Amino acid sequence: MPLADAGFTWGLYGTRMHWSTENHMAERKTALKRAPKRPELEALLDRAKTVVLTDKDLEEQRASFVYGNAPKGSRITKESALRSAKQIRITPKVTA
Predict the structure, then answer these.
(1) Helix, strand or coil for residue 1?
(2) Residue 50: inside a domain, yes or no?
(3) CA–CA separation, 84 vs 63, rounded Å?
(4) Whole-number pLDDT of residue 91
(5) Are 84 and 61 a contacting pair, CB within 8 Å?
(6) Quick one: pLDDT at residue 58?
(7) Domain assignment of residue 16, yes or no
(8) Number of domains in the chain
(9) For the whole model, what pTM was predicted?
(10) Could you tell me the residue range of the domain that residue 63 belongs to?
(11) Which ranges of 1-96 would DSSP assign to H, the alpha helix?
């Protein structure tokens, strides 16, 4: 009789593949329910939609993103990330 027919399953448990009769699958929760109302969050989201970012804000966000995602041991510093972010322009420069 094959092991699968005897109630065994083949899977990765820890670091090894083997046959087992144990169920190691996580219980899944249904996602068919509507999310509860969160008026405070809705108010914050509505407020955030009206915020206008300046070029300086965008530069700081870009530098933070670059520095935060730099690989460990890289030579990227906060200062070098900020210098690089200042050289990138996404929005057209407005001359008045």
Answers:
(1) coil
(2) no
(3) 7
(4) 64
(5) no
(6) 87
(7) no
(8) 1
(9) 0.47
(10) 55-87
(11) 39-48, 55-68, 78-87
